[in-house]
Amino acid sequence: MWDVSLLWRKGRLYKRSTGIKPRLVIITQFINKEAREVAAKHGVEVYTRVLKA
């Protein structure tokens, strides 16, 4: 869960520094329910499925 919050804080800092809102994305094999809720709250996209080539 703290990874999501850390990414969101970095995105907020980037926006303050550049004036550009970044697209925040986490790609992971597993994310627990609490972390997914935090991601949704902060607008962080979460991808958990891997596409095979």
Instruction: Give the number of domains.
Output: 1
Largest sheet, strands/sense/barrel: 2 strands, parallel
Shape: globular
Tell me the helix content. 40-55%
User: So how many helices?
Assistant: 2
Measured between the Cα atoms of the first and last residue, the distance is 30 Å
What fraction of residues sit in β-strands?
A: 5-15%
> Spans of 5+ residues with little confidence (pLDDT < 50)?
none
Structural class: mainly alpha
How big is the Rg?
12 Å
Q: Return the average pLDDT rounded to an integer.
A: 91
Instruction: Give the spatial strand order of the biggest sheet.
Output: 1-2
Please report the total strand number as a whole number.
2
State the order of secondary-structure elements, H for helix, E for strand. Answer: HEHE
Explain how this protein is built.
By secondary structure, the chain is mainly alpha-helical. It has one domain (2-47). It contains two helices and two strands; from the N terminus they run αβαβ. The protein has helices at 2-18, 33-42; strands spanning 25-27, 45-47. The protein has a two-stranded parallel sheet. β1, α2 (33-42) and β2 (45-47) form a beta-alpha-beta unit. α1 (2-18) runs parallel beside α2 (33-42).
